[in-house]
Structure formats: structure tokens, C-alpha cells
Amino acid sequence: MEILNVKDLKIEFNLSGHRKLHAVNGVSFSLNKGETLALVGESGSGKTTTALSLMKLLPDNGSIVEGEILYKNQSVINASAEKIRSLRWKEISIIFQGAMNALNPVLTIEKQLMDVIMHHDHLEENEARIRAEELLKMVEIDVTRLKQYPHQFSGGMRQRVMIAMALACNPKIVIGDEPTTALDVMVQAQIFDLLERLKKVLELSMIIITHDLSILGDTCDKVAVMYAGEIVEYGEVQDIYCHPKHPYTQKLLSSYPVIGGKKALPESIPGIPMDMTQIPVGCKFAPRCHKAMPICFEEAPIQKVENGHRYFCHLGGESL
Amino acid sequence: MKPLLKLEHIEVKFPIKRSLLEVIRNTPQKLVHAVNNISLEVAEGEILAIVGESGSGKTTLGKAVNALHDSDVVKGQITFNGQSIFDSKGKLLPEYRKDISMIFQDPYQSLNPKHTIEKIIAEPLMIHKVTKDKVEMRNLIIEALNHAGLSPGESFLNRYPHELSGGQRQRVVIASALVLNPKLIIADEPVSMLDVSVRSDILRLMMKLREEKKISYLFITHDISLAWAISDHIAVMYLGTMMEYGKADEVIEKPLNPYTQALINVMPKMHVRRNEKRVLLKGETPNPIDMPSGCSFHPRCPKAQSICKNVKPMPDWDKHGHMNYCHFNEEASHE
Amino acid sequence: MKKNSFIKLFIKNKMGRIGMIIFMIFVMVALVGPVIVQYDPQDFGEKEDVLQPPSLTHFLGTDDLGRDVFKAIVAGSRVSLIVGIMATLISMVIGTSLGITSGYFGGRIDDFLMRLTDIFLVLPWLPLMLVLAALLGASIWNIILVIGVTGWAGTARIVRAQTLTEKERQYIERAKSIGASHFHIIKHHIFPNVFPLIFANTILVTAVSILSETTLSFLGMGDVSKPSWGTTLHFAFESGALSNKAYWYFVPPGLCVLLLVLSFTLMGFALDEIVNPKLRER
């Protein structure tokens, strides 16, 4: 069942001197109940902006200029302020990047969890306390640690608390913005393991924002690879891993060494990310593409679809 | 090959500052056991990767090799080119600083924002009084920049770090590490802060320098796949102890130690394994103040027996130079 | 931060602009004034000149000894500024060197220097200055010394705090790994990065120094041969100008002190906002 549908989303930021930064340029995707989608890309590819717009959390100088976001078939873009408030956290919640380091150091974990619950759910203090305990059990932390302070928690534990906060109001969709960056591999695996189990129990849909392609196989169903504010390739994880069609995806995949694969130095992507204040005519990736042809600089590629695997490239999708 | 760098029984223990009350009560001085009894060798032109999670002591070990700790917290012998790096009075040999260089993790933090690129790279030359001649110094700087892939070097001289991208900054760090023609570079997570697209450029640059200048590397990283891809030997550290050491391929393909096995198991593998059952270690690395008895890995080890709790294992070397720090070496290798 | 943008930010800042204008006026008066308006504190006027209200001949009236108050204030501006700035320089040199030493080396040195700083912070500075000034005798240089030696503690604390942050930076570690000496690191890395803060602090300390000078002089510890505004206030008080309602005698010097201190405070706040981006308005 489709729970979220984003159509042709365009987001701009106003910069000083009447310049505009085209952060998101026509992004479309949908999310089914119980599905996990990954938004993958380098820094500045528009993945976080896209995710924030789902809850209308864009900064003041950013605005959605085109497109539609439908949550349960209802428009988010045209929704009233009150509707948006009931959407945030109760329907869609987010685990912000690095938020585990932003826990208030002078309040107990319990107090901080209760604050979130009471703010959004208008529960009595006693009920909120019970809910906080439930949440902590859910993320597999000993309830006796409720009265402790953030500094008594390790990085992985704090991230679990952040997950508990995101789950506080029974949302249907949880967005994780780089949820395991800066954590050790072992802790990262534990967190993904936990998310996986929670997802099944609570029937959550998830959107994972990440720059790390290698972790997708551990968590995701669908992958959207973003470059310069566009989804250049979209498909099942398996397809993306085994048959990447877009040269950018191919390059990204080969920039990680994988144990069990070919032992070689990772590959690089030449050039620098695009200047997002000026949109070129042709394919946005062409200047950095190792397979670029003359047409790539003249015409923007149109979308090609093969069995639900979508990509934007002039090449017919030959493999490497 | 003769070893360029030899570490023998290196231990680093930091005292924890006691409060006044504790001093009065005469509570015993607590220590952070950051590095415990590590012996290693790095040959000329070799890349040794030191792999570990946070809290494993890998950075502390790197700093010990770089002689950045106060001398009273480091025990053991460091030999460079067959010579102890400290003289009989415990003073660091001045040539040693010229022979080694360090590359840090965060290229945004390791350059002084107020200095131009020229000044940054001139710093080692000034400190070691390589030359007084301004033209010669400038030529050396430009050469180092070119070597580090920032060409033409002249165009970078008057720029400031904030005008450069992350990858370019890391190249500046490398250029300033190169300018004294070091024999060994200690690289502490040199690419983990960089975007994937520039990561491999930096790695390639480091490999190129090894070919051209026979530079050895002590490559400190949390990423065991990366260690496998670039290094000759791998040393796996946990809680300050070396758990396994051997040729990179052997350690990765036939890991002997339960910790290495777990680490390799959880590394993302780029294939779909959401529904596979995986063995995850419970909990996180304990703090190195109250060290577990016996084998320091035993509280989290899936194979732990009672002996692990009580007796410290001995490092077990096989004839191929593969070391395993575990009581159950035989069983593990036959699996 | 680029130098140009620094000046731009400063001029853009309203407080900084006003402070700067007032300060420049006083500097002009102090530089040019004594050349145009000759003032001799020994030049007592005739009997009919005593305590005259403002008139065309005596712009701001006369004092109890028949001297021109306006001339006294013009001459006093130079003394007040010199004492304020020189004393601040002494404070800054002591505060900066102790702060950096303490923060950089840490350990026992830090403990010792910070306890010393605490002592200077909690000492009642006015009685201390009075005692010192009385011991050393009333000369302008002694006053500078006394104010300078008692006023560094706050600076030392601030500089130490900033040094502690700076010394943890990775480029310091890089410099150490190259083999840089402590002196090199302090000279090339710590000091240049602490300097903006010292500079902003200097301005604020100058305001305090000028106030201290006025206080000391008002209490009669000033150098009578080089009368400052404080000295003028002292004589006004002594001669009973207040009860005689000779407002022209005590209001102008008081106002001058107020304005000059205000100008430094405004500039200091403006600088603080600039070097301390957390305070910068968006």
C-alpha cells in the first residue's frame, strides 16, 4: 500500500544577491507501507533537503516551487499549519544527523523522552513516564537507566535514545538522516539490526539518508541515487548492486573496497560536484562522467524504465 | 627486508587526575590502559594497517610512534633504522622528526586557518632549518605541492585553507608531510572525513608516493575492508591489545581471532543480507580504565570459556608470521 | 577573517560606529588641543576671576584658583588617555603572557598562575591601588604602573580559556609532530589565534583603566603637575564647588570621563560581537 508519494518536487533556496540555489530538481518517488527507501548521494546532492520537505521543515529561505507531496493521498504542500503540526512526529518523524550529540546534558534521559511525548501527545505525566519506559524497552536499553544522564550513555546507546524519541508518537514513517555515521561498524550493525526488528513489529516505513552505499544491503528495499538534486537512478537494492545502469552509481559502487570482491584500490570520480546555482543544459553529471558523449552536454536525458528500475542516462544501460 | 620501524612492548598508560578528596583519602591512582604490550615491525616501503574501533588505542599507538606523548606515559622500545629514537638521556633524536611525518584525520582541523598554504608547508622547513634561501625554500614548497597533486604549485601558495576543498586540504597536509622527505608516514584515518569521490584520489596519491619515494606507512583505520585493499600487513587492535597480525590477505580470508572474525562479518558487503542471521557482538568496547581480567575481549567473545576470564592468552605465532592472541588458536584455524 | 570584512563589520555595527566617533573626537582634542590651548596649572588667575560661571572669555568658567576650566579639560584629556592606554598595555602584556603560559603548559604552572590570578581577582583593587599609589608617590608613571599591575587578572582568565581551546586544535598537534618548539607553537599558532580576543578585551580594559585613573586622581593620588579630569574633579570637590553649585567646575570633567568610557565600552561590545560569532546578530 502506498503511503507517501512525491511527484516532480522542486526546491529552491534564495541566496544573497538574488541568486537561487536549485537544491532539488524534479524528484519523484513513492514509499509503501513497511518499505525502506534509501536516498543516497554525496554531500550537497539534495537528499536531506528532500527529506525535510516531507515534513515542511525547510529553512526560511527555502521553498517548494513545484511538485506535489502526498501523504496517504492528502497533499502536504497545501495542508494547513495545524495539519502539518499533527503530521510532524505523529505521522512522520526524523532522526537527525548527529542528534545523539545534541541531547541536553543536564536533563535525564527520562525527562527528555517525556518532554517529547508530552509535547506531541498531550499525555499526563504518569502516562508519559510509562510510555518512556515502553520506548526504552523497545530500543533494548535497560529501564533502570532512565534516570541517567546522556554522558553516562555511549554513542550507540545515545543513538538508541534518539530512535526511541523518533518512535515516541507511533509514527508511520521514520526518516533516518545518516543514522549510523560516526558510529563504529559493530555498533552500526547493532543499530541496523534493531531498526530492522522495530520496523517489522511496528510496521514502519523508513527513509534512510546516507552517503554510504555499502550499508544499503543491510537495511533497504529500494534505493534512490541522487546527484545534483535529481534521482539519477532508482530501483531495488539487488538491482542497484548487481546491475547499476547510471555511470554515477557505477562509480559510487566501485569507490568502496569490498571484502570478498576484487582486491583493488577504490575508484575515484573526477571533478567536483556541480555548482547548484547554475543549471546546465545537458546531463548534470556529464562533466564528471567517464562515458560522456557529445549529446550528454546538449540534451538532458529522459527517464528509462526496465522492470521498475529507473534511470536517467543517454546510454542504453550497458554494463561497465 | 630489514625493519625500518620496530616497536617492542609498547605500553601507554595515562594517569587519571585525582580530585583533592581522592588524594587525601589516598585512593590508588587509576590508569587508562590505552595501549598494552604491542610489538610490531614496519619494513621499508611497507604499509602496515592498524585496524580497530574507537577506544582500541590505535590513535594512541600512532602518537606514541610519533613521540607526541609525554615520555613518562610511554613504556617500551621504539627503534628506527636500527637506532633507538631516544638517546641515553631520554631525549628524542632530532633527525627522527625529519624521518617521520603524520597525516591527520580531519583536513579542516589540521591546517591553521590564518596561515597561507606557503606558510603551512614552509613550517617544517623553518623548524628544521633546511634552508635560509628564500628562493630555494619556495622551490621546495612548490615541488612538494606538485608531488601532492596540487599543480601548478605556484597557484596555491597565497591561498588560505578555507578556499580549498576537503580533498585539496588533505593534499596540502600531505605536501607538508612530504617536504622533508620522510621515510615513514603515520596516517591516522586520512580519508574517513572525505567524500567518497575524493577518497580514492588521496589513497592513490599515497600509493604513488610509496612507489616513487619508498615511503612506508603506518595506516590507522577503523575500516577493515580499506585496510585489506591497500596494506601489506594488518594488525587488529581491541582495547589496546593486538588481537591478530598477519599478511593482509591471510587476516581477511582466514581470520583466526574471534574478534577479527566478528569484525569482518559485520562489515557491509554490498549484497543484500537483510534477512540473513548475523552474529553480532553484544554491547560496546568497555572503557580502558577497568580492564577485564584475562583476555580483554572475553566479556563479548562468543567463544569465551572460563580460562579466558582468568588467564591472559599468549600471542601465538605460526610459521607464516600470522599471530593470534587467543586461547583457542587450533580450534579456530581448523574451522 | 579577512581584514576588510572585519572593518566593514565594525563600521556596520551601530555601537561600534558611535563609540569610534566619540573616541576619535577625544583623540583629536588630546592631540591638537594642548597645542592650541596653553594651560599652566601654576598660572593662577586674579581674585575677580575665581569661580566665574561660563562666559565668552572663559568658555567653561573658572575654578576656585581662577584657572580656566576648559583649558584644564583639554589638557586633562591627554593625561587621561595616556594613562588609560599605557596602563592597559601593561595589563595586557601581563595578562596575555600569564594566560597563555598557564593555558598552554597546564599542570602545576597552571595551578599556580591561576591561584595568583584568583588572588588578584578577589583583592579589593581600590584600596590596593591606593596603598600602592601612596607608597610609590604621586607621579603619572606610578599611576600607570599601579593600574596596569592590578588590572590584568580578568584578561589572564579569558586568554587562558581561549588558549585551552586553541591548544587542542589539530594543527597544534601537527606542528608538534613536525618538531616545533613550544615557543614556535605559541608564536605562530596560539598567539595569532588568541589575538582577536585580546584586542577586543583591550578596549574594554581601557575603559576600566581610565575610570581607575579618574578614581585615583579624584581621591587625591593624582599627579598635580599633570592634572587629569580626575584631578579637576578632586579640586572641584575640595573647593566645595558642589555646595556652591558651580556646576561648570565639576560637570564637564565628569561628562568627559563618562563619554570616553562609554565610547570604549561601545567599541568593546562591537568588537566582542565580531570576534565572537556566537553573539553576532544575523
Short description:
Chain B has helices spanning about 20-25, 60-65, 95-100, 115-125, 135-145, 165-180, 195-215, 225-230, 250-255, 260-265, 305-310, 330-335, and strands at about 5-15, 30-45, 45-50, 75-80, 85, 100-105, 185-190, 215-220, 235-240, 240-245, 315, 325. Chain B has about 325 residues and is α/β, with parallel strands linked by helices.
Strand order of the largest sheet of chain B: 6-7-8-3-9-10-12-11
The description of the largest β-sheet of chain B is:
8 strands, mixed
Number of strand elements of chain B: 12
Chain pair forming the biggest interface = A-B, 46 and 40 residues
User: What number of domains of chain C?
Assistant: 1
**Shape designation of chain C:** elongated
- CATH evolutionary superfamily of chain C: MetI-like
Determine the mean pLDDT of chain C. 83
The number of helices of chain B is 12
**Approximate helicity band of chain C:** over 70%
Mean pLDDT of chain B: 88
Descriptive notes:
The complex is a heterotrimer of chains A (320), B (335) and C (282). Chain A is an alpha/beta fold and 320 residues long. Chain A has a domain of 191 residues: Rossmann fold (3-Layer(aba) Sandwich). Chain A contains 10 helices and 12 strands. In chain A, the strands form 2 sheets. An 8-stranded mixed beta sheet of chain A has the order 6-7-8-3-9-10-12-11, sandwiched between helices. In chain A, strands 2-1-4-5 form a 4-stranded antiparallel beta sheet, covered by helices on one side. Chain A is globular. Chain B is an alpha/beta fold. The C terminus of chain B is likely disordered. Chain B has 12 helices and 12 strands. Chain C is elongated. The model of chain C has no long low-confidence stretch (mean pLDDT 83). Chain C is built from 11 helices and no strands. Chain C has a single domain, classed as MetI-like (MetI-like fold), CATH 1.10.3720. By secondary structure, chain C is mainly α. In chain C, α3 packs parallel to α6 and α5 runs antiparallel to α6. At the A-B interface, α5, α6, α7, α8 and α9 of A face α7, α8 and α10 of B.
